[in-house]
Amino acid sequence: MKVLLHICCAPCANRPLALLQEQGHDVTGFWYNPNIHPFTEYRSRRNTVREYLAQIGVRLIEQNDYALRPFVRKVAEDIAHRCVKCYEMRLFETARTAKEQGFDAFTSSLFISPYQNHSLMMEVAQRAAEEYGVQFLYEDFRPLFREGQDFAREHGFYMQKYCGCVFSEEERYLKPNKIIP
């Protein structure tokens, strides 16, 4: 099956990509992450994905939009519930691209993260699949999370410290017992 794998970052994508290939799928990576800010963070994650996929011979489709303003406009009305808007932006665009470019199915490396709202992502992905008439290939990649992080460290990948959006970066500094300089 031809699968379009939305990739949020190389540390999260390496094990899902390997698993999908082991299952016999023809996998292409898809970079679309308007949520990642600041630009230096966006560039570091994107460049690491580019380098890794080129190294292992996997095609990468990039919708290379550093889209701070559209992202903030989408989530500004309800920052506390921003994740659903973020998932919608990325998964609907992945489904649209999969349909337009003739893929059989799509999925996302987001499904490896124990920090993401897994059931909400699944619901959004199902809606995107229905809207665009392309299969959502569900796989719970979370059991591979630590292995993927170890792989990333062993291979010198850029390792981020937060989800990607400016609000999640803020939250990492507002955790209890953290002093903001």
Please tell me about this protein's structure.
With 181 residues, this protein is of the alpha/beta class. It contains 7 helices and 5 strands; from the N terminus they run E-H-E-H-E-H-H-E-H-E-H-H. Strands 3-2-1-4-5 form a 5-stranded parallel sheet, with helices on both faces. Helix 1 packs across helix 6. 39% of the residues are buried. The mean pLDDT is 90.
What descriptors fit this protein?
five-stranded parallel beta sheet, 7 helices, 181 residues, globular, alpha/beta
Brief account:
With 181 residues, the protein is of the alpha/beta class.
Average pLDDT, rounded to a whole number, is 90
The share of residues in helices is 40-55%
Distance between the termini: 50 Å
Shape: globular
Strand order of the largest sheet: 3-2-1-4-5
- The CATH homologous superfamily name equals HUPs
CATH topology: Rossmann fold
Structure annotation, total helices:
7
H/E series, N to C? EHEHEHHEHEHH
Residue runs with pLDDT of under 50 for 5 or more positions: none
Count of domains: 1
**CATH arch. level architecture:** 3-Layer(aba) Sandwich
User: Percent of residues in beta strands?
Assistant: 5-15%
Instruction: Indicate the structural class.
Output: alpha/beta
- What is the CATH top level name? Alpha Beta
Largest sheet, in brief, is: 5 strands, parallel
Protein topology:
Elements lengths: L1 E5 L3 H13 L3 E6 L7 H18 L3 E3 L5 H8 L6 H19 L4 E4 L9 H15 L2 E2 L8 H10 L11 H8 L8
Parallel strand pairs: 1-2, 1-4, 2-3, 4-5
Helix pairs in contact: 1-6, 4-5
